[in-house]
Amino acid sequence: MTRLSELGESHVLERILSHNRSGSQVIIGPGDDAAVTAVDGNLVSTADMLVENEDFTRAWLDWSRLGTKAAAQNLSDVCVMGAKPHGLLVSLAVPDSTKIEDLEALFAGIVAEAARAGEELGCEVPVIGGDLSSSGLIVIAITALGTVGDHAAITRSGAQPGDSIYLAGTIGRAAAGLDLLFAGVDGDAEVARNDPQLDESLTELITTQLAPQPDYAAVLQMREASAMIDVSDGLSTDLGRVAAASGVHAGIDRASLQDLIDPLLPAAQHLVGSIEGVEPDEGTAGAASEAEELALSWVLNGGEDHGFVASSGQFDTPPVGWRRIGEMRVGSGVSLDGVPVPTSGFSHFGK
Amino acid sequence: MTRLSELGESHVLERILSHNRSGSQVIIGPGDDAAVTAVDGNLVSTADMLVENEDFTRAWLDWSRLGTKAAAQNLSDVCVMGAKPHGLLVSLAVPDSTKIEDLEALFAGIVAEAARAGEELGCEVPVIGGDLSSSGLIVIAITALGTVGDHAAITRSGAQPGDSIYLAGTIGRAAAGLDLLFAGVDGDAEVARNDPQLDESLTELITTQLAPQPDYAAVLQMREASAMIDVSDGLSTDLGRVAAASGVHAGIDRASLQDLIDPLLPAAQHLVGSIEGVEPDEGTAGAASEAEELALSWVLNGGEDHGFVASSGQFDTPPVGWRRIGEMRVGSGVSLDGVPVPTSGFSHFGK
């Protein structure tokens, strides 16, 4: 076990970069003042930062999964514009006392998720630059770059009344995982799998929270979408953003969400049971309904699975990887079976 | 005075982005999942992060200058590749209790420095994306993008024996400013200017540390340089990097540095005097020599002014904005008047 303070910056960088992949677009990679890459088409760029104690805690810390999560949330933002990822810039700040093996696991997690996106989309996604510094708190700031070729980028603002609303991937699972973590269910799936008390389905939800795996390839089926967004802050919030940007109303069919809700019921029952301490002989119906409500709220308001939502008027049946969950109409806001849904999900700074 | 926690994320973003500029290359700016921009030529990209307590402290905190510094250190890395800046992605994490006016000053500082680079180089440099989150520590992670057109990017590896070594801008001033700050000289120039005890020259050095202003335009005179680097970690270290990457020896002439050293002598004398408590009647010659040594060490080993060093065999007299400071020779390493100079400057993680 070697700590970073025993290695020095240049050796730490060497160890980390040994996990990197290259790409044919890279003219000058990490090691100079800046990277130089050959870009084909318009450039797509996005940046996201994960900060310890705000976005994760040491109690849940699995370095490799943290890398997966950091990469996934940036790559999904690039892909959902209809773009192919081009490369990542990775800035890391970690404590001096960090083990080099942990930092390598973090970086390798980033590289692996970028490679997965590249395999799904037929492109290479190397880490082309970044920064490394020491800090009391762990901070991971990633910029993901991508390119859009012949067709224009897909924005939030093109949805039309009459368009169907489609979902790829899952929603609600990461939010369920977060509530399980907050309730003290152990975040380390390896430990959890050895604990017969814990249902495997619960540990899988935690894994979705800690290391989401967006269905990047699904975007390829939606290149002609009128609008598309990454569900990072919750279906209600993110669909609300599309509705606001496009000047339409987004009507969700509750029935279309049922097979996203059902797999979350064991976790919801686990939490409702443990919080309420409901006796089996009394109030079982009440607890079941409460669990159903909790599962629905995860699906409606939970982000971080990085499912994708798109609108299109072009399909009779949803393309592979997508399900129809509603329709855009004249108006504003979001509704569930006609009942308005609040669109203010997670917000930094309290409101 | 309004704190971020009273405003909520969307209003905070609105306030910040009111300070942003746009650019004709921007197809989709901040507000969607990712930005889309039109790139002309190959892409140049670099990322740097400033972390509170590692790169600055609250005691020195001037939000606007912090923005200047964060932008300058990224923009200089793009420019020194021979590229024109294209845009910035800015990820900020600040405490909930931060005043909105302070966060606006930070962002406006970034925007102003990007605009200054754009004016010097004839391009527009908007903030095209980023991220905002709350955190116990202030973190500023910036990615700077640029483009290189007809000519290839300038790297660290093209220096040839016989090339002259040139410097643009200053070196040593930010390091002197840092030592003054560590010695308790107040970092706020406004306060300092009202304090007759403090020489204006000292406060200017502190300003260089807190808000360096690289001479971006100088790069335009060095487009045919064989190698170029931003002096961020110190002349010895960064010239050492060029020497290592190019497989040459970099010989510095001490005499060429004298008019960089001289303006630092008052600060060096101030610090040597306050540290040593030297009596005027004894050891004055010793203190003077110690001050000269300190000033030389700032010039040789201090980074963060973001001066630029380049090598070229093409000029009889240095181009405007540049001075000749030595020559590349066969060999390796760096020397000052023939005496080897250590090339291991600032390093994170202790070594």
From TrEMBL, chains A, B:
InterPro entries, A to Z: PurM-like_C_sf, PurM-like_N, PurM-like_N_sf, ThiL-like
Record EC number: 2.7.4.16
Protein residues bound to Mg(2+) 4: D33, T46, D77
Protein name according to UniProt: Thiamine-monophosphate kinase
Binding site for Mg(2+) 2: D48, D77
Keyword Ribonucleoprotein in annotation: no
Transmembrane annotation, as ranges: none
The gene coding this protein: thiL
Domain PurM-like N-terminal: 31-148
Pathway as given in its UniProt record: Cofactor biosynthesis; thiamine diphosphate biosynthesis; thiamine diphosphate from thiamine phosphate: step 1/1
Entry-linked PANTHER family: THIAMINE-MONOPHOSPHATE KINASE
Enzyme class, UniProt record, top EC level: transferase
Pfam families: AIRS
Keywords, sorted A to Z: ATP-binding, Kinase, Magnesium, Metal-binding, Nucleotide-binding, Thiamine biosynthesis, Transferase
Annotated organism of origin: Brevibacterium antiquum
